[in-house]
């Protein structure tokens, strides 16, 4: 049995300064930890990860984006980023914000029976200025990448996908239609994951609304649970029978996101 946790920490140094990273590990006891928005290089972080192998994909831009994987079992191989052929195929290059390939957004860890991919999906931005990149390039390239991995062995992918898939995935859907995180284009990108055979693990066990992983800092949104579910674990359909639990952990503090977890017999 393996427990995997995914958490957008919105700056691992900030979480560590608050003294909240080790309590997260102590509480959830994950075998593998996937982080997004680390906003740091390894040498900038004073965190004790005794018992875990560490893998970092930090952004070229300091204090921005970035992912990390900490694993008790050493993976067979770890790969940072998307494959070069997909970057070329989908013309994933510089935009007005930078180059999405140098923002530390993807880490893939290969294990004996599956691939684990963690991703920090580009945000469409308030003015939707990165929506085209997201919809026409990133989501399609990332899905192609997952499908290529799946030809070898099943895939689990997790992280901050920066989209609420359905109206049940955010507290106030109607006023947010067409806004970042709830545009038709972003939701279509999620639809494509499902159409390709990946399963939203949380929805195996839990239906309906009220289950969120991100809250605004405004108007005590977290205390009132006015949030969004934008952090996910999806898995190849062939793994469905192995999935034991998929949970959201709003009690874990330290970021504007909370961790999500997958417990799987694999």
Task: Record the SSE blueprint.
Blueprint: E1 2-8, H1 12-17, H2 21-28, E2 32-36, E3 53-57, E4 67-71, E5 77-80, H3 84-89, E6 106-110, E7 115-120, H4 131-150, E8 155-160, H5 173-176, H6 184-195, E9 198-200, H7 202-205, E10 214-215, E11 227-228, E12 231-236, E13 243-248, E14 260-264
What keywords describe this structure?
alpha+beta, 6-stranded mixed β-sheet, Deoxyribonuclease I, Chain A, 266 residues, 7 helices, globular
Structure summarized in a few sentences:
By secondary structure, the chain is α+β, with helices and mostly antiparallel strands. The protein has 7 helices and 14 strands.
From the alpha-carbon coordinates, what is the Rg to the nearest angstrom?
A: 17 Å
What is the CATH topology of the domain at 40-47 and 60-66 and 73-242? Deoxyribonuclease I, Chain A
CATH homologous superfamily name of the domain at 40-47 and 60-66 and 73-242?
Answer: Endonuclease/exonuclease/phosphatase
**Number of β-strand runs:** 14
CATH class of the domain at 40-47 and 60-66 and 73-242 equals Alpha Beta
Distance between the termini: 6 Å
């Amino acid at each position: 049995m393996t427990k995997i946790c995914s958490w957008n920490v919105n700056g691992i140094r900030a979480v560590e300064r608050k003294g909240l990273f080790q309590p997260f590990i102590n509480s959830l006891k994950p075998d593998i930890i996937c982080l997004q928005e680390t906003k740091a290089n390894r040498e900038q972080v004073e965190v004790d990860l005794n018992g875990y192998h560490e893998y970092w994909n930090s952004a070229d831009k300091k204090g921005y984006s970035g992912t990390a994987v900490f694993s008790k079992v050493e993976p067979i191989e770890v790969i940072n980023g998307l494959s070069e052929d997909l970057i070329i195929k989908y013309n994933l290059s510089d935009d007005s914000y930078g180059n999405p390939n140098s923002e530390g957004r993807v880490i893939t860890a290969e294990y004996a029976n599956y691939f684990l991919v963690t991703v920090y999906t580009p945000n469409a931005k308030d003015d939707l200025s990165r929506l085209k990149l997201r919809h026409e390039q990133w989501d399609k390239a990332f899905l192609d990448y997952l499908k290529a991995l799946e030809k070898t062995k099943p895939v689990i992918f997790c992280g901050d996908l920066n989209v609420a898939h359905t109206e049940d995935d955010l507290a106030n859907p109607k006023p947010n239609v067409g806004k970042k995180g709830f545009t038709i284009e972003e939701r279509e990108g999620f639809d494509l994951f499902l159409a390709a055979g990946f399963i939203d693990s949380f929805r195996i066990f839990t239906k309906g609304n009220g289950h969120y992983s991100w809250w605004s800092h405004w108007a005590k949104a977290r205390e009132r649970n006015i949030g969004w579910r934008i952090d996910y674990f999806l898995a190849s359909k062939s793994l469905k029978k192995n999935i034991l639990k998929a949970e959201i952990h709003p009690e874990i503090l330290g970021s504007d996101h909370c961790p999500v977890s997958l417990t799987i017999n694999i």
